[in-house]
Amino acid sequence: MKRRIDRRRLLKPHRRLRTGSARVAAGIRVLVLITVIMLITITFGLYYRQQHPAIGEMVDEYHGVAVYHNGDQLDRSQGQYYSPDGYYYGQKWQCVEFAKRYYFQALHHRMPDVFGHARDFWDARVPAGQLNYRRGLLQYRNGGDVPPQVDDLLVFTYVNFGHVAVISKVGKDEIEVVQQNVAGHPRQQLAYSQRSGYYYVGDGQQPAGWLRLEQ
Question: Which CATH architecture has domain 58-212?
Answer without folding.
Answer: Alpha-Beta Complex (3.90)
